[in-house]
């Protein structure tokens, strides 16, 4: 059993029971995450895609026209219930500082090393504390017109992932990159963790492999 099963159920061999009052299971509207698709308690199937933005104002007039045309073409066939969400978060400078430290360690020039160290010191003193980063998401759900074969969970998940592939192809013409995580369920779980725990997630990040480690932590083992 992994973290997904512990949070949303589906793997524990225990008799069905009502969730404890005021517990996460009681108020969390999510039932499961399957194949990168969120399954809600009211029976909806929701797909979340993260998109890396592009500044259209830095493009040439011809490129702008092509971007707008490609986007308009996709909107004509996009799911009817489509949401575009932007999350604004404080900038995370940890990766930047680590990268600058690596540069300093391999920099032969003493003057350049001093400049890099000054830069790291300024970042550490909070020069970038007011900096913000933005994450953009496309969110849509399964609709009857998508016609999943058999209307099984597996068929619906496959159909939504096909819609995601279509979005990638069209948005590629807009010079927008739609991220395709290697582990889609892990991506969704981490995103939900950040949304639900807005403050905690800024200082406590889920480590890599946390979903595998949960098995040992909770003393539950796969048969």
Descriptive account of the structure:
By secondary structure, the protein is of the alpha+beta class. The chain has helices at 3-8, 24-27, 61-77, 94-105, 110-124, 153-172, 184-196, 200-203, 210-218, and strands spanning 30-34, 37-40, 45-52, 82-90, 132-141, 177-178. α3 runs antiparallel to α6 (153-172) and α4 (94-105) runs antiparallel to α5. The radius of gyration is 22 Å and the shape is flat. The chain starts with a helix and ends in a 5-residue tail after the last helix.
> Kindly state the mean pLDDT as a whole number?
80
| Fraction of residues in H or I helices | 40-55%
The main β sheet shows up as:
6 strands, antiparallel
Our count of helices gives: 9
Q: How far from one another are the termini?
A: 9 Å
Which key phrases capture this entry?
223 residues, six-stranded antiparallel beta sheet, alpha+beta, 2 domains
What does the secondary structure layout of this molecule look like, with pairings?
Blueprint: H1 3-8, H2 24-27, E1 30-34, E2 37-40, E3 45-52, H3 61-77, E4 82-90, H4 94-105, H5 110-124, E5 132-141, H6 153-172, E6 177-178, H7 184-196, H8 200-203, H9 210-218
Antiparallel strand pairs: 1-2, 2-3, 3-5, 3-6, 4-5
Helix pairs in contact: 3-6, 4-5
